[in-house]
Amino acid sequence: MSIKKDPKLTVKCTSIPVAPKPLGHWDLQEFLNCCKSELSKIYVRREAQKDANKFYGYTSDQEICDVLTGEEFETSKKFKNTRPLEKKIGPAAEGTLTDAYTFFNVNENHIYLAFLKVNSMWVIKSFHPCEDDDFYNEYALWLTRGRM
């Protein structure tokens, strides 16, 4: 016995474009927009300020935000992870999610950035050299994109 297909009953499947899932828990673009135009909504933790000054010579929140809104961050950023805070920091409870990215600055330093949002404030939790095992692979890829 053979089954005949009725062309009237044939259903065409059409693929529906699906927007890519954003990386991380927090809205990176909203964070960067505040870095660019609403510095009053950015709080850089003391440890992050000390590291930014010690390792890169950035002495103000404005300088850190300028780096984050610059071309180097845009072209070299790589989402690392989303992790819960291991301990309470200020009004942020233990377990609050933190997004982390790595990127290269204009001097080709590999930087680790971690941030979160507490109420209406963005908090830069970490800004220090990246200790990632894949540093050399990322650096080589970044250089091949014409960064030198």
Describe the structure.
There is one protein chain. The protein is an alpha+beta fold and 148 residues long. The protein has one domain (25-147). It is 32% helix and 24% strand. It has a 5-stranded mixed β-sheet. It is extended, with a radius of gyration of 21 Å.
Q: Give the CA-based shape.
A: extended
H/E order of the elements? Answer: HEHHHEEEEH
Main sheet, how many strands, which sense, barrel?
Answer: 5 strands, mixed
Please report the total strand number as a whole number. Answer: 5
Topology:
Layout: H1 28-37, E1 42-44, H2 46-56, H3 61-68, H4 71-76, E2 78-84, E3 97-104, E4 110-118, E5 121-129, H5 135-147
Parallel strand pairs: 1-5
Antiparallel strand pairs: 2-3, 3-4, 4-5
Sum up the structure in keywords:
about 150 residues, alpha+beta, five-stranded mixed sheet, 5 helices, 5 strands
What's the short version?
By secondary structure, the chain is of the alpha+beta class. 32% of the residues lie in helices and 24% in strands.
